[in-house]
Amino acid sequence: MEVFPVIDMEKLNGEERATTMDMIKDACENWGFFELMNHGISVELMDTVERLTKEHYKKCMEERFKEMVASKGLEAVQSEIDDLDWESTFHLRHLPVSNMSEIPDLEEDYRKAMKEFAAKLEKLAEQLLDLLCENLGIEKGYLKKAFYGSKGPTFGTKVSNYPPCPRPELIKGLRAHTDAGGLILLFQDDKVSGLQLLKDGKWVDVPPLKHSIVINIGDQLEVITNGKYKSVMHRVIAQPDGNRMSVASFYNPGGDAVIYPSPALVEKEEEKKQVYPKFVFEDYMKLYAGLKFQAKEPRFEAMKAVESTVNLGPIVTV
C-alpha cells in the first residue's frame, strides 16, 4: 500500500535535497497533497493557535452551532444530507487588506497569534511555490508572479471546528470538493482525524501528525501547470467523538490576475498542447461559488467558453 507523502523540509538543506525534491514532485503529480514537518513555524506558535482556536469555539461558537443543529432537526436525521456540512466556521482575510480587526468576538491575544501565524504561512507558501518552480523547470518566481495581479495575491484563512456528530454516516463534516485557489496550507487537529482525499478511486486518510502543515494543490495550479499538477477531491468525515480543529489558509491569485498555462510548460509538452483555459481569477471564483461540490472539469470548460474576452498581459519575472 502506498504511504501518504510526508516531507521533512530540513532535508532540503543537506545532501538529501535531491531526494526530498523528488518526493515533493511525486506528491504534486500523483497525490495533489503532502504533509510538511520541520517547516520553520515554531511549535510554540502552533500550540498557541490551537489552544486559542479551541477556546474561541467553546466560548463564542459552540452554542450557536448547537442552536443551528436544533433548528434544522439534525440530531434525528434518518436519510443522507447532501446540502449541508457539519462544521462551524469563520473566515479571516490577510491580503491584500486584513479584516482581522472587524471580526467580532476575537480576543486580542487570538488576533495577535493569528496575525503572526498568517505571516509565517505566507512566507512558507512563497517558499513552496519556488520549490514547485524548480521541480517544474520554470523560472524561479514565476508562480508567485502568476498569482500577483495588480495588488498582489489574496490570502485568507478558514477556521473550522467539526463537533461530534450523532450520524456521521449521514452528514459529512465537509462534502467532497477540489479547492478553487492556488496553494492551501492546513494546520489540522492531531488527535481527531477526518480529512480524506480521493486517490485512484479510493478515499485515503490524511494522517493527523502533530505540528505538521498539510499542503494541497488548488485548481489554479492545475491550470498554470497545464495539468502536470492536479487539484484533488477531498472531504472531511464527521466523527461521533471529539471536536476536530482545522485552520486552512489559502494562498490564491489576486482577483484580477489572469490565469493560464505556463507557456514554458506548454512548449515542453508539444504533443499535449494547451488544454486549459485563460481566465480572470475572480470570474472563476464567481462560477465556483455555485459549483463547489461538483466536478472541476465543467468549470474549466465554462471558462474556455469565455476566454476569448480575456486580455492576456505578459507575466514579468524578476
TrEMBL record:
<dbReference type="InterPro" id="IPR027443">
    <property type="entry name" value="IPNS-like_sf"/>
</dbReference>
<dbReference type="InterPro" id="IPR005123">
    <property type="entry name" value="Oxoglu/Fe-dep_dioxygenase_dom"/>
</dbReference>
<dbReference type="Pfam" id="PF14226">
    <property type="entry name" value="DIOX_N"/>
</dbReference>
<dbReference type="InterPro" id="IPR026992">
    <property type="entry name" value="DIOX_N"/>
</dbReference>
<comment type="similarity">
    <text>Belongs to the iron/ascorbate-dependent oxidoreductase family.</text>
</comment>
<dbReference type="InterPro" id="IPR044861">
    <property type="entry name" value="IPNS-like_FE2OG_OXY"/>
</dbReference>
<keyword id="KW-0266">Ethylene biosynthesis</keyword>
<keyword id="KW-0479">Metal-binding</keyword>
<keyword id="KW-0560">Oxidoreductase</keyword>
<dbReference type="GO" id="GO:0031418">
    <property type="term" value="F:L-ascorbic acid binding"/>
</dbReference>
<dbReference type="InterPro" id="IPR050295">
    <property type="entry name" value="Plant_2OG-oxidoreductases"/>
</dbReference>
<feature type="coiled-coil region">
    <location>
        <begin position="107"/>
        <end position="134"/>
    </location>
</feature>
<dbReference type="Pfam" id="PF03171">
    <property type="entry name" value="2OG-FeII_Oxy"/>
</dbReference>
<keyword id="KW-0408">Iron</keyword>
<keyword id="KW-0175">Coiled coil</keyword>
<dbReference type="GO" id="GO:0071398">
    <property type="term" value="P:cellular response to fatty acid"/>
</dbReference>
<feature type="domain" description="Fe2OG dioxygenase">
    <location>
        <begin position="153"/>
        <end position="253"/>
    </location>
</feature>
<comment type="pathway">
    <text>Alkene biosynthesis; ethylene biosynthesis via S-adenosyl-L-methionine; ethylene from S-adenosyl-L-methionine: step 2/2.</text>
</comment>
<dbReference type="GO" id="GO:0009815">
    <property type="term" value="F:1-aminocyclopropane-1-carboxylate oxidase activity"/>
</dbReference>
<dbReference type="GO" id="GO:0046872">
    <property type="term" value="F:metal ion binding"/>
</dbReference>
<dbReference type="GO" id="GO:0009693">
    <property type="term" value="P:ethylene biosynthetic process"/>
</dbReference>
<protein>
    <recommendedName>
        <fullName>1-aminocyclopropane-1-carboxylate oxidase</fullName>
        <ecNumber>1.14.17.4</ecNumber>
    </recommendedName>
</protein>
<keyword id="KW-0847">Vitamin C</keyword>
